[in-house]
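Sequence only, no structure available. Ideas?
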Amino acid sequence: MKIVSACLCGVKCRYDGKGKANDKIIEMVKKGEAIPVCPEQIGGLTTPRVPAEEKDTQKSEISGATGSGGKIITTEGKDVTENFERGAEEALKIALLSGCDEAILKEKSPSCGVKQVYDGSFTGTLKAGDGIFTRLLKKNGIKVKSEEDI
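Reply:
I predicted one. Tokens follow.
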């Protein structure tokens, strides 16, 4: 069983109120092979919402294999780290309860990014690292891929 970013199934849960439908992932969900989740919504954030990126200024509770573990800050300067951490933890519970051993997540997201995320400058600049949900999944032994890997 896989857990997948809900936006990749066409669910309009991204910060901009849109989805990023991926036909292969939609087919996995239809066949009962994958479960869609949006850690940001589960963590209590609205859709649409103010864009947020991870800044390397301080460490958050969830750290792991790669990524900075910094604070998640919106373009308005609001710290939403707690929402991102709570969402990652609750989405992990769904993955574990469902017996998921693999995840396919949305690249570049501060939650779901795999291999690269935005650098916190809000300039569209990417840096190497994983999102907060990705780090938590890896820390718990769940293999993670980007939608770009399938």
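The two ends are 15 Å apart (CA to CA).
Hope that gets you unstuck.
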